[in-house]
Design brief:
Layout lengths: L8 H13 L5 E5 L6 H13 L14 H7 L6 E3 L11 H11 L9 E5 L7 H6 L1 H5 L5 E7 L7 H4 L3 E4 L5 H10 L4 H11 L3 H9 L2 H19 L4 H10 L4 H19 L10 H7 L5 H19 L4 H13 L3
Parallel strand pairs: 1-4, 1-5, 2-3, 3-4
């Protein structure tokens, strides 16, 4: 296989078949957790679509002029839609401009590919602006969208795309990847457990030791909240405000340890083995319904923060919700 992506062989096989048979859909939604490889996979698929001389399995040859321009970031028919400078998300105006662009023929070849990452972070109005183009797609354009939260993509948009679920990568595969990069066994196991099935997150942690320290800080915060209760809310809210940019990672750490608590309750091994004793003492004793409610509250807080809700109100509501008994 020309492109061997970690832990995604089944999905690669599906895409390879579409390339070989020429049954490439007009639009795909790559759906999966943050940093699980959605964008990387979409880019490789885009290269294959634009390749002038694809391999027998459909993937890009890497040698033709189209592949060379793609790999150097200079292919005129590969469009990546990113937020404009100073903006957090793609705007309605950008989508309208994109619609005008794809209405004309490709510049260099027979196909054009549009990559729109994190469509779930785009306002409904901007998503709606591309709906007609997805309903009546130009024959020469393929849309590749990525998202982590399906419920934040308009149902009318989702229904007009082929859904490709990008599952979490097995921990063993991530350990092998980290070991191949020179990490020792203990480090690789620890970082892979913290990555929660996301190779990109594992690489971030391995390249930035502060990420590991942040995970420990996050779990200490959660432990303090569960131990001291309401008395800790004000202090922890201030602590989270002091590391505002890192709060999404803190919430991810809380979700991971809640999942591990559920695994322990069900007699299954804890993913974050280096914090197994802590999880067994602090999280696993909580009732299943409370763990589920805590996970829902964290996910809601993540969505609210991504949607530019008030940081202080979101954090306060989350900390209170985490203490509520089911």
């Amino acid at each position: 296989m020309a492109f061997d992506w970690l832990g995604q062989q089944a999905l690669l096989g599906r895409l390879s078949q579409a390339l070989v048979t020429g049954h490439v859909a007009h639009a795909y939604l790559f759906l999966g957790p943050e940093k699980c490889g959605k964008r990387t996979l979409a880019r490789h698929f885009a290269q294959a679509i634009l390749c002038a001389h694809p391999r027998s399995d459909g993937w890009g040859c890497g040698q033709c002029a189209d592949c060379q321009r793609f790999l150097s970031g200079n292919h005129a028919d590969f469009i990546v839609v990113e937020p404009a400078e100073g903006r957090k998300t793609v705007t309605v105006e950008q989508i309208r401009g994109l619609v005008r662009t794809v209405a004309v023929a490709p510049y260099e070849g027979k196909k054009r590919v549009v990559l729109l990452p994190r469509v779930d972070g785009i306002a409904p109005a901007a998503q709606h602006a591309m709906l007609k183009t997805l309903e009546e797609p130009p024959q020469h354009t393929v849309f590749l969208l990525t998202a982590s939260a399906a419920d934040r993509v308009l149902a009318t948009v989702r229904s007009r795309m082929a859904l490709l679920r990008v599952p979490p990568v097995p921990t063993g595969d991530i350990i092998a990847m980290l070991r191949s990069r020179g990490l020792d066994e203990e480090q690789a196991r620890s970082f892979a457990a913290m990555a929660d099935g996301a190779p990109g997150r594992a690489l971030d942690i391995s390249e930035n030791p502060q990420q590991a320290a942040l995970r420990d800080q996050a779990l200490d915060m959660l432990g303090d909240l569960l131990s001291a209760g309401q008395a800790e809310i004000a202090r922890l809210a201030a602590g989270l405000a002091a590391i505002k940019e890192d709060v999404p990672a803190v919430l991810d750490a809380w979700l991971s340890v809640i999942r591990d608590g559920w695994l322990i309750k069900n007699g299954r091994p804890c993913a974050q083995v280096d914090r197994q004793v802590w999880t067994q003492n602090q999280i696993a004793p909580l009732p299943v319904l409370r763990l589920a409610a805590m996970a829902r509250a964290i996910l809601e807080a993540k969505r609210n923060l991504e949607g530019n809700a008030s940081f202080q109100m979101t954090v306060d509501a989350l900390l209170i919700a985490l203490l509520e008994e089911e």
